[in-house]
Write a structure and sequence with these properties.
The protein has about 230 residues and is of the alpha+beta class. It has 2 domains: about 5-75 and about 160-205, Nucleotidyltransferase, domain 5; about 80-155 and about 215-230, Dna Ligase, domain 1 (2-Layer Sandwich). About 30% of the residues lie in helices and about 35% in strands. It contains 5 helices and 11 strands, in the order βββαβββαββββαβαα. The protein has helices at about 45-65, 95-115, 160-170, 180-190, 195-205; strands spanning about 5-15, 15-25, 30-35, 70-75, 80-90, 95, 120-130, 135, 140-145, 145-155, 175-180. The strands form 3 sheets. Strands 3-2-1-4-11 form a 5-stranded mixed beta sheet, sandwiched between helices. It has a 4-stranded antiparallel beta sheet with strand order 5-10-7-8. Strands 6-9 form a two-stranded antiparallel ribbon. α4 (about 180-190) packs across α5 (about 195-205). The radius of gyration is 20 Å and the shape is elongated. The chain starts with 6 loop residues before the first strand and ends in a 29-residue tail after the last helix.
Length: about 230
Amino acid sequence: MAEEIDFETYLSISKNKFEIFLFDNKNLKSLYKNELKLESSIIDLEKLSKFLDDNIFKIEKFAGKFIENIFLIIENDENFQVNICIKKKNYDKLINKKTLENTLTEVKDLFKEAYQDQIIMHMIVNNYLINGKNYNSYIDNLQSDNLCLEVNFLCISKNMAINLNKILEKYQIKIKQYLNARYIKNFTKVENIKIPEMAYMLKNGYNNNEVILVPKSTENKGFFEKFFQLFS
């Protein structure tokens, strides 16, 4: 192509359908899309491999470069979710970004300790209880002796992740992030937009209550480099 594109590749899988997209980040549209409808009671990994055989080379030829990473959108009856509530004493009396970061880091660590066979796809704050009042979004600098959070975790099993990674290793592609298809579809119904566009928006902070998890950096940016839209 004459002009190099800024793109991402999304692979959406379920027991009924596989879809793959080459997504233009700048113009927020799919440059390439293909799908395969299925009739199966499980996600058929053998058919998934064949589907990738039929599409990866076409996408790489279109983009003019190799695909190194892919965002995997999965709808699976075995996907796990759980709500965890945590209540913390707030000795500073003022609930601010640091208080919230520390509490969320603790609840994330509690989840990882309790569910070692799961990988977090999405971490979403469903409710803030402050001074006996429920809030559906964070409000900065409220005074309270306690902070109580209800956090929803959407997950994929490590076994499934290992199997999917093995398939994509054949093409020297790494899964950059796992995304929950049902979570994404709930937003597409409201906004009336396509799956890859909504996936792109969500992983970049569209849901103000979703915690964007990033690795700790060497520049000491902290665990939450991007902490909700509120702090971006």
